[in-house]
Amino acid sequence: MATSTVATAGLTDGLFRQKPQSGVSGATVFARSNERPVCTAKSGWEFQDTVEIPEALPKWFGATLRKITELLQLAPNWDGYGASEVRQDVAAKTLTVLWNLLESDSPTPNVVPLSDGGIQVEWHRHGCSLELEFPASGAASFYYYEEATDKESEGILAGSVDQLRAYTASLA
Known about the structure:
Blueprint: E1 5-7, H1 8-16, H2 26-32, E2 50-52, H3 61-72, H4 88-101, E3 110-113, E4 119-125, E5 128-134, E6 141-146, E7 151-156, H5 161-171
Antiparallel strand pairs: 1-2, 3-4, 4-5, 5-6, 6-7
Helix pairs in contact: 2-3, 3-4
């Protein structure tokens, strides 16, 4: 497998904003390539400085990247109530966490903007709901609900890796 390592700052700076020379978004170019980031999270889902890029993409990645790229193009006040622009650092953190959490065959999440400039990622499948919230400031959190058993759980993403992997497995 061919891999390379790039600095995350360089990846995110060129990933979502238009490149002045070509006028093309780096995210569009990246999404069309046969490369994907592999982000190794430190304990507690801390953001990494480097990304390893192997050859194959998981099936959920392309659609998720496209949606996050669309969210980054939202203008201030996109909701008519004073919402902030989606922040690039939040987008990068969201992709990093998803990369480390999801399997290659995980279902594609719905991705929606938060009015504070953050991102919410959610799945509603098979009577289960999982929501991951990445606010513009503060800790990322999750909410899980299982209809059949009325099981409900919520908390901070940091320290919940095994629990979240079990929840995402229930969505498949």
